[in-house]
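Record type: ASSEMBLY
Status: queued
Input:
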Amino acid sequence: MGLLLRALRDGGPRSRGRLAEETGLTRTVAAGLVDELAELGLVSCEDADRRGAGRPGVKVRLVGRSVCGIGAEINVDHLAVVALDLAGSVIAEFRLGIDGRRLSPEGVLAELAGLVTDALAEARTAGATVAGITVGVAGLVDTATQRVTLAPNLGWREIDVAEDVRGRLAAMATTAEPLPPVQVANEATLAATAELDPTDADRADMVVLYGEVGLGGAIVSGGRVAPGRHGWAGEIGHLPVDPRGRLCGCGRTGCWETVVGLRALLEAATDPDDPIRDPALNLEERLATLVERARLADGRTLAALGEIGTWLGTGAAVLVNTLNPGTVVLSGYFAALGEWLRPAVEARLAADVLAPRAGGTRVAISAFGPTAAVRGGALVSLEPVLSDPTALADLPELHGGSR
Amino acid sequence: MGLLLRALRDGGPRSRGRLAEETGLTRTVAAGLVDELAELGLVSCEDADRRGAGRPGVKVRLVGRSVCGIGAEINVDHLAVVALDLAGSVIAEFRLGIDGRRLSPEGVLAELAGLVTDALAEARTAGATVAGITVGVAGLVDTATQRVTLAPNLGWREIDVAEDVRGRLAAMATTAEPLPPVQVANEATLAATAELDPTDADRADMVVLYGEVGLGGAIVSGGRVAPGRHGWAGEIGHLPVDPRGRLCGCGRTGCWETVVGLRALLEAATDPDDPIRDPALNLEERLATLVERARLADGRTLAALGEIGTWLGTGAAVLVNTLNPGTVVLSGYFAALGEWLRPAVEARLAADVLAPRAGGTRVAISAFGPTAAVRGGALVSLEPVLSDPTALADLPELHGGSR
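Status: finished
Output:
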């Protein structure tokens, strides 16, 4: 059933016959599974091809709204939460600027739990069962213990984010209904999940560069986000690129993120008293201001973007030489400024990649930008339903209605 | 059938019943396939469990000798060829020291074709059908066109190795029999194939460092050697690690291979007039001398190995942070000196990898060392037979006998 559900999500509505053909199932088996999915309220069937001369086909359509996944993100300067339904449409979305280095972990998590509670309420109003909550953190996440081991830019060590959020959500709950499962993951890993596209061969092997205050990364290999042996893959922010460079949050010198993170861009593009540096500003406002200055061809802004783009390409070349990805995706804050960053990235790749024509790797700008991680979190939360739609029956029904 | 053949190769002889169980086939299907394999001469069946009280099981055993694959390697200071049978046993093996930078590509390829012709003759004598010939080159190989695009340490550009070797083998052939297929690949990619072990979870995600005059590399992800989008993955030798370092064969400065390649070790460990630098010496002799000096605790040798090991760890940490492999394998020349290199590599990983305990990545010493690439080439040559044993019928029968 999961196979059919994924096919409908990724390819849109189509006839039972075509679904069977594309998934390699017999027509009888496919029809039976479609009936089961319809009973679960996940698909609807309608007579298509009524005007045709042949026998009418039944067109199957995903009913996205009945289930949703929640993605949340803890970053140094902002929190974000999104609820996506099964079809990928937004049910609820919240963002909040914070100063993560001044707030305690408890303070940050309390704010986050508030946003998630709001999203749960909106899902309930929309009549959607929440399949799960996935929290992305800009740091090392121990996937086995579900703890945040180290988040250098937040100054966090060994924080049990999932357990903490669970407790806060339970305390804030206004009903006695059980909570959906809560898990924690690295935010760039989640961002990469949002960038996956099974229809694009250039994205089956992919490097996702997720720009925030620091730099997150994820490696996609053979169409899946590669976790590595113990789930620690993607720590590219601390690639040494500038031995004579600045001190990094990790304690070392000249890490890649010190020269491409948002902090580096703001320092290169603005003076200390520039209003853009006001910690009360949220990421969107900052990026909008930078985009405006770049459009007006402000010399300092363009020079700073050229410099960041060159450093971005210098590090990306290491990954392209190692992995020969089909695509390097500029995600996170890089996406908003991608138009000005990409030429410098491409120039560095052309110069530093040994294979001809930069190994055929193309540089793409994320369509999601800073929302990629929360979108990915929501998609990961929906995974259990896509893998086994019958699991829905075991989920707490937040809306109390029938499916 | 390929499934059964692989199971027999990787797990040794066993009863038809156990084979069926382990491969998930029904007993009837498995028995039928075993009969077909026996007809092809690839397995033998014998009554096992004769002394048991129950009905006798039939024990199935791989008959390795009837088929072999040939692997060849073109490196800067040596050529090598090996013929392995289906069970992985050596049928023939040749090595030849060369000065690849003085010889023309034609001169090198003529020597190589000579060695391959000798291996073909030995396979014929052994009564084995040669499934294919795979030539590994220390350089960038365009897998689509099967040309060597760039081999910086050999000084080669755009050489059609497969076509050239095919022509030379045909010219040297003493019989009118058709030649087995010839293909070309990157040597470190082949070395990684030899290091694969489906029974070891720590090798499903793996980084193979193949030390030669330069440094080759390959990334294993999800149990397979990851080629990247266009087959250029694994070019780790040109990772920039030492901006104030020495000029590399690729034209840039401070590439990883300039500080860890065999050339760097020889320069650090020996004086220019040291007999070990004699170009007439082959790799084994050089390594044997270095091992002897290290065993005798020669100060200069140990200091050089410590320095190389530290640089090896510095670059490896970048890959471990990015990929979190279960294993980093020291292969090629590193394997012979692994005992002295590994402690420094592990120390750098512990210091430079962000995840706790170096992300759980272990450092392993290859059991094959400098023969990993030719072994991998032979295994790759055997792949078509393992994927579809009936393909054997289409292969030229070099030995002219019956199978």
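Annotation: The first strand of chain A starts at residue 14 and ends at 15.
Annotation: Chain A touches chain B through 47 residues (CB under 8 Å).
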